[in-house]
Design a protein that fits this description.
Layout (H helix, E strand, L loop, with lengths): L2 H14 L2 H35 L1 H27 L16 E9 L6 E9 L4 H14 L16 E8 L6 E7 L14 H16 L3 E8 L2 E2 L7
Parallel strand pairs: 4-5
Antiparallel strand pairs: 1-2, 3-4, 5-6
Length: 228
Amino acid sequence: MNLRQKRARILGCLRIFRPSAIKSAAVSIKAGLKNLILIIRQRIENIIAGAKADQREYNRVMFLSVTGLCFFAYIMLCILTEKNVLNIFPPVPVIKENRIINVYMPSENCTEIIQEQRRVFSDLEDDKLVHRIFYLVAAGSQYENTMSNVPARFIIKMIWIVDNEDGDGKTCLIDLMPVMIEKETAVVKGSEQMFREALEKTVVENVPGVKKVILLEKGVPGKKLWDI
């Protein structure tokens, strides 16, 4: 491209920004907008007329109108809350993983300590795991009639896991509310001691570092819970 052609192109570009050219472009844009508004108005009038004449068309128009209004409201809500428009569904909750643990409990008539397996959440903290283990042992076997082995209902007040003074492992203390047993309830002889042993064996096996389990009643250790 030579110098004369470059000069002609520059002059052509400058003519576009002349007042008369700008005015002409504005008039054209204004006329186009008026024509577009007229077409939209005619279209709306035709839709309204069709809706008045036909019930099915009326229902369709109302459905589309309500849907459009809801979508517009959703868009405005997303803008106000600075939320992604496509983020419609809540996040999928994380499914907790289970693990199988060994649970020990007195057998029927407290002749021995038996072992069964139970599922617990794998991410339980130590005190929560002890809480779960306590009630699993108290509930007894799923295959034998061991309901009379633990004839009391427990409410756990507090669970502590503390380091032993000699530095050898930890001790788990479980503080219980006072245990109430109905007078007519049959109690199996030796069931309390076997329950304590089964509970300690289960906790020691499944809670890292715990070497001993002590049951308290309102903060007092060594009290008989139900045994005869």
